[in-house]
């Protein structure tokens, strides 16, 4: 058992039909530690804009940045809320100058959403903050370890498979 009282076991997995590979507890714990760092980087970038937009509003901006022309129905689905809640969030973002709302030329019953220059700047700033924080961490690593890390992280992301856009958007990560 660990310090939190959680029982630890050897974990076996298969990858690409290979024979099972034994995972050590330390393998999983190391990834959990790295995940905490990445979540902290994400949370800090959100905190830096919280006086401008709420997390749900940032999520809306990220959705629109990821899928230009997204409509209110897509926003409601992405947020997992009723369309009236999505409408209120969009109204606030339009009022704050981060979003433009236009009639869909192919279906006037639909509204298309587009980031304004201010909206693009805010999403860009959040992503730049994240990139800078990660770069600072990587710079503290020995170059040989950093070069070894990149293919490992690509392999890890590949093994995780394609994530649902809604899961990626939950903390304001664009999918484009």
**Approximate helicity band:** 55-70%
Shape: elongated
CATH architecture: Orthogonal Bundle
Order of helices and strands: EEHHHHEEHHH
Structural class: mainly alpha
Radius of gyration: 20 Å
Number of strands: 4
CATH level-1 class: Mainly Alpha
Q: What is the mean pLDDT?
A: 83
CATH homologous superfamily caption: Winged helix-like DNA-binding domain superfamily/Winged helix DNA-binding domain
Q: Proportion of β residues?
A: 5-15%
How is this structure best described in words?
With 176 residues, the chain is mainly alpha-helical. It has one domain: Arc Repressor Mutant, subunit A (Orthogonal Bundle), CATH 1.10.10.10. Helix content is 58%, strand content 12%. It is built from 7 helices and 4 strands. The protein has helices at 25-47, 55-66, 72-79, 83-95, 117-139, 143-160, 165-169, and strands at 11-13, 21-23, 99-104, 107-115. Helix 1 runs antiparallel to helix 5. The protein is elongated, with a radius of gyration of 20 Å. Mean pLDDT is 83; it is low at 1-20.
Blueprint (SSEs and pairs):
Layout: E1 11-13, E2 21-23, H1 25-47, H2 55-66, H3 72-79, H4 83-95, E3 99-104, E4 107-115, H5 117-139, H6 143-160, H7 165-169
Antiparallel strand pairs: 1-2, 3-4
Task: Describe this structure in a few short sentences.
The protein has helices at residues 25-47, 55-66, 72-79, 83-95, 117-139, 143-160, 165-169, and strands at 11-13, 21-23, 99-104, 107-115. With 176 residues, it is mainly alpha-helical.
